[in-house]
Amino acid sequence: MHESSMEKGFKSDEMVYTNATNSKSVIMNFTGDAEYDIDTREIPGESVPFSIWTRLRQWSGMIGAEEFGIERIMEHMRTDQHPRDYFTIFFAANCNAATLATGFLGPVTFGLGWWDSFLAIIFFNVLGGLFPAMVATLGPKLGLRTMISPRYSFGWWPAKILVILNIINQIGWGVVNCLSGAAVLSDVGSDGIPLTACIVIVGCLAIVLGLFGYKVLHFYSRYSWMIMLVCFIITAGFGARFFVVIPMGSGSSEASNILSFSTSIIGFQAAWAPIAADYGVYMKEETKPWKVFSWAYAGLLSSQILLELLGAAIGTLCFNANPRFQQAYDVHGLGGLIGSVYEGMGSGVRGFGYFIEVLIGLSTAAVITTNIYSLGLSAQMVSKSLIVVPRLIWSVIGSVAFLAIALAARDYLETVLEDFLLICAYWLIPFGAVILLEHFIWRRNYEYDLDAWNDRSRLPYGIAASVSWVCATTLAVLSMSQDWWIGPIAASIPGSKSGTDISWILAAICATVIYVPTRMWERSQWKL
């Protein structure tokens, strides 16, 4: 081994990784070549400083948290984890108030009717779920975390920019998910619970779960979705008689609203892409990719379609002739509408409704845990010197950040949700296009040099990927429609005063058209 990287930094692509369990450690070569089971204070022929990071890794091992970070999970470390775990983790993570709020945008924000909301939710989820489900297959095959994979197309330095964007992405999703859960929880009780307190409750529950890592995430997800699905079914049953069939629109205005709503749906699905493979790295390498894809796609599709359809149905309550629904929405937003379906049937039913609201409000903890977990991994990818800091520490720092932002943005759930979903689509769609094109054209049999993941001299320069991504993202910005910016392309499309958002469509086309020929040229020059 080399000189300890814990205090003296990196001299090469190798480092000391301490996996502290019962005063023992795994010292891992970060090129993935070797491991040694040794005492935490000794490396053969060399002394390892017993630093603060060593102690933190020992502590995380004592409390049962996952200690591994972004290093490749070798085959002998894999378990017999079944690919159905992809279904449960995606279903559980999406079976919450945030997914409900996405469907809610259809009738309330974009002015769609029931049937056009219904069709848009079905069609664009079927389309949008393909990419994260495909990315999920990389987990078992490569044993690498999701955001390591872009290094094989974007190269060393451009991939770091994407990692930073993903850190921002996960913090943003933590905010959105926390606000969604807190909005429902705040409606509990005759006078409600202060929204600030609800944000702290939901956030802290998620933080505790998220710090433990892979094993706890999968265990929690395996069972929590069952309870939440029952809660949403009960809510749908109580609310069915109040839902309104809003007429479908027509003309250019309708088309504009559908396209803008589609960007939100696609953005919600695409947001899983930068973290999808993180939850399959301990599966056996021989696990069939089609099985992984099928379970992941089924989990993404079923959860988002069911919950978004219910969200759209709840959104129609705002158009109910009974004024109590609008009043409930004005006071407690989405949470008020959910609670209103339990009113008028006696104190017993209303009390039961409060119990259901508590469970729905806390449901977002399942998805926030994935944000926290993957955020910690992404932070380790920014720089080699950051790998030595345990994932748990980065997760704590990210948790503090998302909780602080959620408290500051507590009164703007719908605005934050709409804007953030659209922004996700702007950069993630061209990112996804590049990753898929690279995989299916040049690495279709999972032909990745797995020893090169942390060696920039063996990775592409990323010229083709960077040019494609920058051009496509720029085009997406010119085609976007936000309250604070309407791109000239979006503004030029008739049908809406606020413009028609077609960013994800143009971004996908642009990335494809540019990447294929430029990547062929790049490979012909450097063979990487």
From TrEMBL:
Membrane topology (UniProt): Multi-pass membrane protein
Sorted UniProt keywords: Membrane, Transmembrane, Transmembrane helix, Transport
Descriptive protein name: Purine-cytosine permease
Source taxon at top rank: Eukaryota
Cross-referenced Gene3D superfamilies: Hydantoin permease
Pfam families: Transp_cyt_pur
Entry's localization field: Membrane
Membrane-spanning parts: 86-106, 118-140, 161-186, 192-214, 226-246, 258-282, 294-314, 352-376, 388-408, 420-441, 461-482, 502-518
Family listed: Belongs to the purine-cytosine permease (2.A.39) family.
Listed GO MF terms: transmembrane transporter activity
Gene Ontology CC, one term: plasma membrane
